[in-house]
Amino acid sequence: MYKITVIPGDGIGQEVMQPTIDILETLNSKFEFIPKEAGKECYQKYDTNLPEETIVQCRESDSTLFGAVTSIPQQKSAIVTLRKELDLYVNQRPIHSYTNPDIDFTIIRENSEGLYSHIEESTGDEAIAIRKITYKASERIINYAFNYALKTEKSKVTASHKANVLPVTDGIFKNTFYKVASNYPTIKSNDYYIDAMAMYLITNPAQFDIIVTTNLFGDILSDEGGGLVGTLGLIPSANIGDKTGLFEPVHGSAPDIAGLNKANPIAMILSSCLMLEYLGLYDDAKRIQNAVEETISESKVKTPDMGGHNNTQDVANNILHRL
């Protein structure tokens, strides 16, 4: 029996989570789903957007499904806090187009430091944010990227950085990349500055298999990836550490459409597939992925972000029907 913490959050997080649980329950009776709170509504109830009880339950679970939360001024990000508390140093985001075979790569982003380290201070008219990059964190994320390339039979890993402008911090990342790459002689390696990388994702995406980069750069490239496939509603992500994992859609809480039953549930559903793979349930993951792909390519059932007129539950029901 796998213990799965379920954090719907707020906004459309709640709307896309329930269809995902429904799909998982049709496949496998090995799950115990444990609901916990985080986000804006949680803050209104408990004066915190991430109760300690939620953190403890995530730590004790085999994995966590996370919907989306709305940011709250003067409160640390709930998802960033969970990543740090659970030491989820890998953020893995597959970018796959169902219409363009040239777009099929994975962004692996260092998840524990960089500009998301929450080291900021303000003095008078000056504010400073510290960008923390370490050899240890760089080495473990780059090793993960090369091992993932071997596991998925990919031929190349590309690093992205800005070492020409940030020679100390990104110098660490670039130098560590090539040091680690020397241990994987069967995998090709190269690097691009982050601005060039952003351009090449648009002009020549077929050249990429695995992209490894630092925290902020990976976050930005992931949203660009959503643009490449047409919508963030199709992009899942995994946050992985040595002891547990947390799986979430790339999209946010989208309060402008919350409660309207317009949200695309596919990113959340595909995030559950990444969870199944993490747990070793590869056949179940593949079944869901196939049903999603059939829904996208064969049916006319699409949410507005995909150019259709159907609602969240329509899409989920189509996937369930194909399962």
TrEMBL record:
Annotated InterPro entries: IsoCit/isopropylmalate_DH_CS (IPR019818), IsoPropMal-DH-like_dom (IPR024084)
Pfam family, one: Iso_dh
Domain Isopropylmalate dehydrogenase-like: 3-319
MF terms (GO), sorted A to Z: 3-isopropylmalate dehydrogenase activity; isocitrate dehydrogenase (NAD+) activity; magnesium ion binding; NAD binding
Entry keywords, A to Z: Amino-acid biosynthesis, Branched-chain amino acid biosynthesis, Leucine biosynthesis, Magnesium, Manganese, Metal-binding, NAD, Oxidoreductase
Cofactor(s) it depends on: Mn(2+); Mg(2+)
Biological processes, Gene Ontology terms: isocitrate metabolic process; L-leucine biosynthetic process; tricarboxylic acid cycle
SMART domains assigned: Iso_dh
EC number: 1.1.1.85
Subunit structure: Homodimer.
Family: Belongs to the isocitrate and isopropylmalate dehydrogenases family.
Protein's UniProt name: 3-isopropylmalate dehydrogenase
Source species of the chain: Methanosphaera stadtmanae
